[in-house]
Amino acid sequence: MSQRVVVTGLGVVAPNGVGLDQYTKALRGGISGVRHYPQLEELKFGCTVGGIPQGVDDIADRYFEEDELLAMNSSHRYGCIAAVDAWTDAGFELPTPGDESVDWDSGAILGTGIGGMDTAGEKLVPLVDTGKVRRLGSTIVEQVMGSGVSARVAGLLSLGNQVTANSSACSTGLEAIIEGYHRIIAGRAKRMLCGGTEGSSHYSWAGFDSMRVLCRSHNDEPERASRPLSASAGGFVPGSGAGILHLESLESAQERGVRIYAEILGAGINCGGHRSGGSMTAPNPEGVERCILQAIDDASIDPHEVDAINGHLTATGADSQEVFSWAKALKRTPKTFPLISSTKSMIGHGLGAAGALESVACILMLENGFVHPSINCEDIHPNIEEYVGSIPQAVHEMTNLNTIIKAGFGFGDVNSCAIFRKWVD
Known about the structure:
By secondary structure, the chain is an alpha/beta fold. 35% of the residues lie in helices and 19% in strands.
């Protein structure tokens, strides 16, 4: 018999709030974490704004030992802080020094899209190119390898089940959650820490700037730069941070007697095959619809049970098509369409961490009975004007909020979708 999977812990390091209280207040208040960064202007970026979590180094100093910090770039710090917070939020204590026990029932899938690019750009490449290989230090590999964060978390928390990293561009964070969900369903683990982390680095953002897919029109108004669903959207705002969910079998959670935030009802993952308009940088609409329908089918619910959508919605030309794909898959007309919002409007696009940061937002909205606004879309794109009533531009209090569907679509035409339902004992 397959296991039911619930969420019992959350951790978040976001541009508009570190920790659940700050993040919840920012989401409810429509508070942006996008800021102007002079360094980007000095480097002649077209986009000089971004989303970077604040105060993280001070938090890391409290959480980790000095020798651990030496091996942690920004991606590591974000991911490890969020993992520790999700672990303790789920009711666990941190292992004490000298404790040799291993938790064989708990694991982690913590992904990243680009990862340690800041270490590569600031240290690895310059030192190697100037013949100073011996100065790289003993931690360079763990800082740049894709599984560096998940491996670090395994050591911090004595995890003995599967510990790995995934990478599927902007679908990464949500895909990690879905992979952990599947592992628990299959009975291969009781508990999994799942999500994504992405460091803040101009090296990570430079390629997107050169592609001209970043917003250049609001450098002097950073809080207005991320404009999903807007007629004046000019590209996405690069972001960073980490979001992590502690997933657990219902049986384990009930045995421990811990608080349950939500249940994962179902999920879907696929690829559009780079056909019918899909490519390395664009989704195949049929692939998107199939992924949503796969999640609906896996959850065994009627599409009309969906109360709200947390979309991918990046502030590019794909936003309108995404709304149409949701409408088609959920069989909803503009009049019956559920509320739809974009967390990216407040935090920018966290790349490999995006789906995880946004999944944390979904759980917090279910827990607290609201749908956060999509800010900066006062000029709704003309293609979706019929849906304006479903796009909240201020917080929408919704005490009967029960079911949220979340999707992430990434470069490479890869798609992920999950359905979360508020837990009621």
